[in-house]
Amino acid sequence: MLKFYQSNFVQFELILVYSGVCKVNAAIATWQLINLFNVDIIINAGTAGGIDESVQLFDTIISKKVIYHDVGDDILTDFHPWLKSNYFSTDPSLINLIKSYYQESKYPLLIGTTVTGEQFITDKNRTEIKQKYSPLSVDMETASIGHVCYINKVPFITIRTITDTNKYQGIENVELNCIKASSISAYVVFEFLTKLTTSLI
């Protein structure tokens, strides 16, 4: 069973949950956050793998678009939820807030596309995904979170820090860098909430 933790940050009530790995687990956690707690926004934090050559270890990716790389391009446009394109967009106002300060952030922030799928990405997969989607990063959860948020009309943003890159590939790098990357992601979330607080005053 998922465990939910409640906390407060200035005027915000926060509900935290660790979804676990993979699309279905992330979708379940997101659905429960929305339906049990009636949240106003979803902030997806964690780690990801770098795909674009410009992405370095411990960069933090702020996604504007999230796409399934293992779902046919027409599945979500020809069938429910009948998207106009094959991707989910994060909330523009939240992205604009990050754009207003991202160059001043303590850690490097990059804004772009993230792709999601159920498997760890190999060299062959990296090439195919890069050519088709031109993403900055890849993970196993974010598109499913965007999917659930889209269905429920809840704005979301994703803040994920890089554990492995084209140069530093493999599960050994993920394991080596996971704790530091997670800490950076958490700090960037704190930074974001601080700016969000200021923007609402």
Automatic annotation (TrEMBL):
<dbReference type="Pfam" id="PF01048">
    <property type="entry name" value="PNP_UDP_1"/>
</dbReference>
<dbReference type="InterPro" id="IPR000845">
    <property type="entry name" value="Nucleoside_phosphorylase_d"/>
</dbReference>
<feature type="domain" description="Nucleoside phosphorylase">
    <location>
        <begin position="13"/>
        <end position="193"/>
    </location>
</feature>
<dbReference type="GO" id="GO:0019509">
    <property type="term" value="P:L-methionine salvage from methylthioadenosine"/>
</dbReference>
<keyword id="KW-0028">Amino-acid biosynthesis</keyword>
<dbReference type="GO" id="GO:0008782">
    <property type="term" value="F:adenosylhomocysteine nucleosidase activity"/>
</dbReference>
<keyword id="KW-0486">Methionine biosynthesis</keyword>
<comment type="pathway">
    <text>Amino-acid biosynthesis; L-methionine biosynthesis via salvage pathway; S-methyl-5-thio-alpha-D-ribose 1-phosphate from S-methyl-5'-thioadenosine (hydrolase route): step 1/2.</text>
</comment>
<dbReference type="GO" id="GO:0019284">
    <property type="term" value="P:L-methionine salvage from S-adenosylmethionine"/>
</dbReference>
<dbReference type="InterPro" id="IPR010049">
    <property type="entry name" value="MTA_SAH_Nsdase"/>
</dbReference>
<dbReference type="GO" id="GO:0008930">
    <property type="term" value="F:methylthioadenosine nucleosidase activity"/>
</dbReference>
<dbReference type="GO" id="GO:0009164">
    <property type="term" value="P:nucleoside catabolic process"/>
</dbReference>
<dbReference type="InterPro" id="IPR035994">
    <property type="entry name" value="Nucleoside_phosphorylase_sf"/>
</dbReference>
<protein>
    <recommendedName>
        <fullName>adenosylhomocysteine nucleosidase</fullName>
        <ecNumber>3.2.2.9</ecNumber>
    </recommendedName>
</protein>
<dbReference type="GO" id="GO:0005829">
    <property type="term" value="C:cytosol"/>
</dbReference>
<keyword id="KW-0378">Hydrolase</keyword>
